[in-house]
Amino acid sequence: MTRSHPRTHRAREILAAVGRAYPGAWDAADRLRAMRGREGLPEWPEWCYLPLHAAYAIVSGGGEHRVPYERAHHVGILGALAAWRMTQGIYRFDPALYAAVVETELDRDLPRAPLYRLPEWCVYIETPDQVWRIAGEVRPIYGVWAHLDWDERVEGRPHDELRLVLDTARTPEEALDPWAGCMPIPLILGEGTIADSLARVLASGAAQACAHGLEPPAELTDAEAVAPTLWPIVSLILYLCADDAEIGDGSTRPANPEPRRTRRHGWRLFAADGPRVWDVGVRIGAALRRAYQAEQTRQESAPTGRTVRPHIRRAHWHTFLAGPRTGERERRIRWLPPIAVNVEDVSKLPAVIRRVEP
Question: Can you point out the beta strands (E) in 115-255?
Fold first, then answer.
């Protein structure tokens, strides 16, 4: 089921707070998006709403202005919100499916191809029970914005990044605060583990901090320590990108807006007028709960024998050889989504909604 336009939500309140901090930012983002491939701007891929270079120009004021180091994190936050503003999709996982997906560890190469199938330019995923530890403080992660960024200036060729913004703000009004606000985290897509991707970014950030006479917290320089916090989040993102991801009730699917013709300005994109909540995994969550209860009953009534407990088999990597049989072949990997084991056919189950207050 999809519940459209709730009266309020943290993500929406943060969007409003950042808009107040940078008046005119959203109009500027709309103009820059409309100039894609024209007036000296590159033709960036359709899966990217607006490269962060453009968000940098908005935060800095454009021209030769530079963003001061203490506000550098504003670029990632504003860039994510500019993309999310267009659809304002909030993804709420069924508790049973959520628990299964977040347990999936990504201990090999960060898969690249599935991430280009994000249902919207930027998504906001609610993340109950996830926490961020920084400077001795344990702060809840209320949710995460996720989007893809395109950068054409690295080593003379473009590269792509999975951009995360952790909603760790103590209050929506503090979203841009360097310590009490949201936490932008970029992951460069390519070879290596999540920790490897993160290490490159953390090393660069640490070098910039030192150049400004600052010492970053140890929590922000140890990629191996930070990566386990990101594993569950990336697993949730990958589920949304899976071919068989169960999003909504099947009657409609999330999508980016289509341009509309206007009399004065020609074709234009219009931002959503409010948040839209998408329930994720309602049927498979119901199937899991029913199967767990049935299995528990069978175990209590039949102490002998052996059965396979219904569960979601953890997402895992599959390696395979690609290339002509007579020539050189290369080993590749494919990420397989969580697989239901000994669970009823979820397509035959009713969509039972478990209401969760925002």
Answer: 122-126, 131-134, 137-140, 143-154, 157-166, 183-188
pLDDT surpasses 50 at 147: yes
Distance of CA 292 to the CA centre of its chain: 29
- CB-facing half-sphere around the CA of 250: CA atoms within 13 A: 10
Distance CA 217, CA 223 (A): 12
Could you give phi then psi for residue 247, rounded to 5 degrees?
-120, 120
> pTM, whole model, 2 decimals?
0.82
Q: Distance (Å, rounded) from C-alpha 173 to C-alpha 180? A: 10
Does residue 146 register a pLDDT over 90?
Answer: yes
Six-digit token string for 217: 């917290």
Phi, psi angles (nearest 5°) of residue 251: -80, -25
Higher pLDDT, 28 or 38: 28
Residue 84 is predicted with a pLDDT of 98
Dihedral sign (CA 225, 199, 10, 282) = negative
Q: Is the pLDDT of residue 338 over 50?
A: no
What average pLDDT does the segment 270-296 reach? 83
Question: Is 239 in contact with 123 (CB distance < 8 Å)?
Answer: no
Q: Which two tokens stand for residue 287?
A: 């199937």
CA distance 226 to 160: 21
User: Cβ distance 12 to 274 under 8 Å?
Assistant: yes
Q: Could you tell me how many helices (H) and strands (E) the chain has, helices first? A: 8, 15
| 205: exposed, middle or buried (Cβ count in 10 Å: 0-12, 13-18, 19+) | middle
Alpha helix positions (H), the chain: 10-21, 25-34, 52-60, 73-84, 95-102, 194-211, 223-241, 282-301
CA 352, distance to chain mean position in Å, is 26
Residue where the block lists tokens 């979203």: 175
Residue 70 amino acid letter: E
